[in-house]
Design a protein that fits this description.
mainly alpha; two-stranded antiparallel sheet
Amino acid sequence: MDTNLALILVLTPLLGFLVNVFFGKSLGKTASGAIGTVAVAISFVVSLLLFNQITSTGKGIQVTLFDWIQISNLKINLGFLLDQLSVLWLLFVTGIGSLIHLYSISYMHDDENMHKFFAYLNLFVFFMITLVIGSNLLVLFIGWEGVGLCSYLLIGFWHKNQDYNDAAKKAFIMNRIGDLGLLIGMFIIGSMFSTLDYATLKTAITGATNLNLPLLSLAALCLFIGACGKSAQIPLYTWLPDAMAGPTPVSALIHAATMVTAGIFMVTRLNFVFDLAHDVQNVIAIIGAITSLVAATIGLVQTDIKKVLAYSTVSQLGLMFLALGFGAYEVAVFHVITHAFFKACLFLGSGSVIHGLHGEQDMRNMGGLRKAMPITFWTMLISSLAISGVPFFSGFFSKDEILLTAFHHSIPLYVVGSVASIMTAFYMFRLMFLTFFKEFRGTEEQKHHLHESGSLITIPLIILAILATFGGLISLPGNSWLNHYLAPLFTKVAGEEHHLGTTEYTLMGVAVLGGLLGILIAYIKYFKQDNFPESDENITGLSKVLYNKYYVDEVYDAVFVQPINSLSKFFRDYIETGLSALVFGLGKVTNEIAFQGKRLQSGSIGLYLFVFVLGMCAIISYIFLAQ
């Protein structure tokens, strides 16, 4: 029964992909959208059944399909591990994935390749499920590479635009850099313990008395490099904002609940490895804090509504890694869940705005949409309050837990995380004021056609807004269902439940005041004073540096891209040209030898027998003389 459920869970989205690839165009847009949505919805139902079973029994489910690879004493099975962590991830991957598929039926209806879009979405969900439920690192790696491939296909979906193709290639290549680190980490762990299976690894590591800790730390560092690529941490973060080139449902799927959380999932799954690599944990916390702050500063001045949300995602992922660096895995998972709710709502809400404005993404050309798009406005407002940490929305609980954990481990990193959180509140309400308040700044034609999106778009927004409001109830301070649910997975509970005392209430008050301060500054600047972002050519000073993302892309281009291109041109123009004479010369020599050898083939049987006899005589003579 468990095997059948696991196979239905995994294979249903794959079946949806195959049906849409081969028959989607002939079935029509409505049918292809319905097939893709139902496929993921079935996986969500199966996830609910598995969640209920694991919650009631308290035990995970191990499914081994067959023996896959055996090299010397290294044995790897193709199997699935359905435990508290994987099923929790499945719930929001398939649940939010279903809502995004439903949303896409309306959003992508006018696209001529709608069937292909749903095929790619289904394939993405298939690989994400594989990543999450794999029982070992190699199965995880299959899903890891699969979601990378699908992100390339989805980001560059509108491939007639070369800029979108470039964004897709950038995402693919930067993820390959991180994936190399992941592979090296896997090789090191495989060589140390002769297994990649999670359960066997945990038993071997926790029961070992003579571990090679430096080598294990190196493996953990390499694994973290892989997480930096997939979850967009410094220095491998620049692909994620460019990934906004894809259709907005792609942004919600990749950047809210699925692909970018893969790194968080992998580190949490291998918590027993990272707990022994304290230096690597320090690196993780520092990188997470810096990423959170850097991305937040860039988000302060962006004018593309999706770019603001993209840098917000990078910043929030940084906070999650900050928690991971302190060993507070359950706290990081808590923020993953709440972030999935409010960020998916924000991305889909921005898509509703873009859809209503016929493709316009620049907030300088928006404004006054509150009355025309009330459902979009209220759902995005709720999610903005949640991400800003306003009581008592979901983000308030999860972000407060991260900052409280940071305070108890490192005051400087706590300060960095707090400043980033204040900036988050500012740029999110900057987005809200520029988009929904004051007078409309677009064209008269856009103004004439302003209207609320259809029910297939607004229903997912409403559901996500409800989750963004009440999602924090799963982990209340001092009474955390989530912590108890995940407790069997961790060798130690580093992020202990924070019982409310004077310190906790003080820090909570500071966090709330910080968030409200960010909102107040945005209100004064963009509502009361009616300030307006300048045109690109008029941006100067620090704002220009932030608007151009600290020129990191330009630095990467100068340090890596251009030298590699120059080296490639050198080999093409000089090495290949210079060696071509030698290469062709060897070919000519080979042809000449073959031609001379061909002349020996006269077809005379008598000559062949004569040569044969001479050869036999020579061999016999050699043997006789050798004796």
